[in-house]
Amino acid sequence: MTLHTSRKTLHEDQAAALRALVSGGRPQATTIAVTSGKGGVGKSNVAVNLAVALAERGLKVCLLDLDLGLANADLLMNLHSARNLGHVIEGDVSLEDIMQEGPGGVHVIPGASGLARLADLSEFERQRLMQQFRNLEAEHDFLIMDLGAGISNNVLSFACAADTVLVVTSPEPTALADAYSTIKLLVYRNRASDIELVVNMVESNKEAKATYERLAGVASRFLKLPVTSAGYILTDDAVTLAVRARMPFVLHAPRCHASACIRALARRYARNVETPAREVGFFRRVAQLFM
Ligand SMILES: Nc1ncnc2c1ncn2[C@@H]1O[C@H](COP(=O)(O)OP(=O)(O)OP(=O)(O)O)[C@@H](O)[C@H]1O
Ligand SMILES: [Mg+2]
Predict the structure, then answer these.
(1) Nearest CA to ligand 1 atom 16
(2) pTM for the full model?
(3) How far is the CA of 50 from the centre of ligand 2 (A)?
(4) Can you give the residue ranges of every domain in the chain?
(5) Phi and psi at residue 164, in whole multiples of 5°?
(6) pLDDT tens track for 190-204
(7) Yes or no: domain 31-290 corresponds to CATH 3.40.50.300
(8) Quick one: which H or E segment has residue 62?
(9) DSSP 8-state class, residue 115
């Protein structure tokens, strides 16, 4: 009996060790919240193409389209979904029911309209939802969220709970000013680390660097906050063509300049996946903020 028990324990230990090996020691997905101050600066393109580029590296990626405006990921990936996260929150369907397989093997959870309802869920409904989200985290290496622009309370909650907040801006002064306002709001909500900037639609590495330094300088001086540079994406006609073809540009034009930039971004995050995860998963952190 004792032998049997100890064998079982040994077996369980081995299973745990194997899981840790396979998952690189992290039971939870790394969550990246993609947001911006100004609209139209390229958030959805960054979110979708980063997701595909990470999947190309053999990682399991789920893209959550949380933009409450247009269903951006659907448009950029040519998906058609009748049901979304709002229906899951209402309890009509499960997360698994609405998850779609997008280009490049990326899993896609289509946009939500009922996020505000999260606050009114009963304990039973909340637990049921959290269990589904925990499964989602356990089954993926990365959850990439397209949060949309303009910072609503819901967007802020999701952004605050993510491992990394990736703020997208263009080099235009208005976009940069709005990016700064967004970062300021995050800091007011006690988000004091892992805020990164990607500068989209630049003509050169030099322009990207100057844009980043302007924002990082102001954030450091007035918010005492380090903003990390995640990289940049060159202005590229191939992006517009891919959008028209309703395909991620990394698949439509794998060798274009913008694709090379996105791959560099993905390489950086794929490397970071080795760092230990937080003990509390993303959705539990969201729940603590929302509910
Ligand atoms: N690197 C780029 N090079 C050229 N054009 C680009 C680039 N990035 C984005 N665009 C153009 O900008 C448009 C808007 O991009 P996208 O939809 O990704 O922005 P968004 O920030 O998600 O917008 P919204 O705020 O409306 O959700 C694209 O349709 C494309 O035409
Ligand atoms: Mg968008």
Answers:
(1) 42
(2) 0.86
(3) 14
(4) 31-290
(5) -130, 135
(6) 888 889 999 999 999
(7) yes
(8) strand 61-65
(9) G
